[in-house]
Amino acid sequence: MAASTNPSTSSSSYTTTPQTYHTDKTSAYLLPNSSPEHDRLNTQAAHLRAIMNDQIIHSPLPPSTPNLRILDVGCGTGIVTRDLALRFPNAEVWGLDLSDVPPPRAEDGPFPSNIKGRGLDPRSASKAHTWMAEAGFRDVVVKQYRWPFGGEWEEDEKWKAWGDYVATSMPELFWVMIGRILEGTAGKEVVERTREQMMADLRPEKGKEWRMSVVVGRKAGEE
Questions:
Q1: Euclidean distance between CA atoms 223 and 211, whole angstroms
Q2: What tens digit of pLDDT does each residue of 35-49 get?
Q3: Among 54, 66, 97, 155, whose Cα sits 20 to 30 Å from the Cα of 34?
Q4: Concatenated DSSP letters for 81-97?
């Protein structure tokens, strides 16, 4: 479900066009669900696949694993969900998101028949390793990947491209989020000042980076 919004104010750096957002009032998710956001998510997925050397799933599972069920929480456009279904043709693959996923008839590629979708409020995975251990998973492993702000200093071309993407897309993303968070609670001057500080904080700089964690574990009783 989507709700229309009015155009936001523009600046010398960015102009926010009319966007649509999910209508689940219980969720704090702030980003839009419109076509430009779909494009951004697909581009981000391509860069992440590159820096992870095409290893979009880190569990050591052969494609022919029987009775395999895969859950993609916060699946966005479903691009990764679709890739998982193609890599594991015998698996039952579920993609969950707050907003409707682009339908199977979309021109950018039909979904395989083993994908199912259902709306759900996704939660942060920052404590996934703890939750998995508490749930009884064994051999829980965390692998981290860098989100560098700027690719000028990177030697590998895929990391150059990834760094340039992060430095360009993240300020645009937070520009929209700041407007959404402060909407109705702060004046225009506060919004502009917050955005200016954000732009300064996210300026490309060697050594400045975020860390993304990939967490995998083995169910108890499985060898």
A1: 31
A2: 777 788 888 888 888
A3: 54
A4: HHHHHHH-TTSEEEEEE
